[in-house]
Structure prediction request, 426 residues.
Amino acid sequence: METYNNGFQGIETDLVVVGAGIAGISAALEAAETGFGVLLIEKNPFIGGRVAQLFEYFPKLCPPTCGLEINIRRLRENEKIKLLTLANVKKIEKTEKGLVLEVTQNPRFVNNRCTICGECAKVCPVERPNDFNFGLDKTKAIYIPYENAYPSKYVIDPQYCKFDECKMCLDVCKYNAIDFNEHKQKYRVEARALIWATGWDPYDATRLENLGFGKYPNVITNMMMERLASPFGPTKGEIRIPNFNMELKEVAFVQCAGSRDENHLEFCSTVCCLASMKQAHYIRTQYPDTKIHIFYIDLRANGILEDFYNRTKADPLIEYHRGKVAKVWQNPQNKRLVVEAEDTLSGVLTKKEVDLVVLATGMQPTTSKKIIPLDNIIDDNGFVRNELDGAIIGCGTCVSPKDVASVVQEATGAAMKAIVKIKEAQ
Ligand SMILES: Cc1cc2nc3c(=O)[nH]c(=O)nc-3n(C[C@H](O)[C@H](O)[C@H](O)COP(=O)(O)OP(=O)(O)OC[C@H]3O[C@@H](n4cnc5c(N)ncnc54)[C@H](O)[C@@H]3O)c2cc1C
Prediction:
């Protein structure tokens, strides 16, 4: 690696993939296993993206970590892939031969000697909200992002760690794996093609004031439900709200919470109906007597996923209500939540009292937050306009909302397009 006067280290590669969710990992593997060099850039301290936060996958209801583990093994074994976590692309310039990128990498403060023994976290006196679990619990300032996280190393959150004022983790680490002197790295990357695969964020439910998120602890989002159902989540898989007493007799799912709405996300995220059906199954498995109400505008379960819908529809304790939910409020007498919706088939106003409300919030492209340092590459909803810039290829849910199977197919296509670009530039 060359080091420039301005402190930038030089990297030359065929392909840069930004975002190491299932889209980016799949595209990187396809290109690398065909023999091309790939630099995979991820902003988080771990790879896997949102899929790592899911409990089970529809339609088969298997744990997503299985698929991730296979991909991580392929990635670890492939010398053609260089992975930078905690990294961000700051600048992109197009050149005759491809692209030049400026990339910065934040320090992890934990090196490869880490054996994930966890002694550091045991003594760490500082806690931080656990963003992986959407703030439903806390981690220490030195933490492992989740059980099977890769790279398998702890990381220090510099916003919370007291560093030299504390040093308790340094003192207890037998492996010299903690290094407070690590600092930010800067890279100048020359590449022939770029795949942008930065995925999605859950739509901000605090903007849905009428639906009670943030006001009532038993109004949660669909991604919070994934973490509550996970055996590695804040309640070790028991579906309940931490530090909140409730009996789970009835649950309501509010579909299109902030979706297909010109004041929020104008588009349909395509997976939320199936995600709620899947989550209804989580609840029915754990609490066989609990009744589920799914409030919807239209139900969407395309192609072979129709089977999945039919299975939930056959369940007598899952009731579908056609109607957009107008309001969620708390009954002052019994403290249960009241979900109010107008049934768009009968015109009748429905009110259901439930113990838990799950808001099926949609997938907002991360690119809507202007994270690509280039103009004219995103559309009005923030999605990447595929291939607008020739050598830059959008891939996954930052291009349009979709499920994992569709993302993986698109990633193969993106890798093929990138290979054509690389060949053209050679
Ligand atoms: C509630 C819910 C349940 C779901 N359940 C299922 C299911 O059961 N089955 C199914 O098939 N699909 C499901 N999905 C859809 C699934 O989550 C997506 O298809 C999948 O996450 C898309 O992968 P991705 O790689 O495009 O994006 P992501 O998973 O978002 O990955 C993007 C990656 O890019 C990184 N990144 C972001 N910004 C930057 C940046 N600036 N620089 C570098 N890296 C960056 C992120 O940290 C992340 O690692 C569900 C969705 C929801 C909302």
In short: The chain has three domains: 2-106+184-201+364-425, 119-172, 204-361. The chain has a mean pLDDT of 94. Residues 35 and 80 are 7 Å apart (CA to CA). The first strand starts at residue 2 and ends at 3.
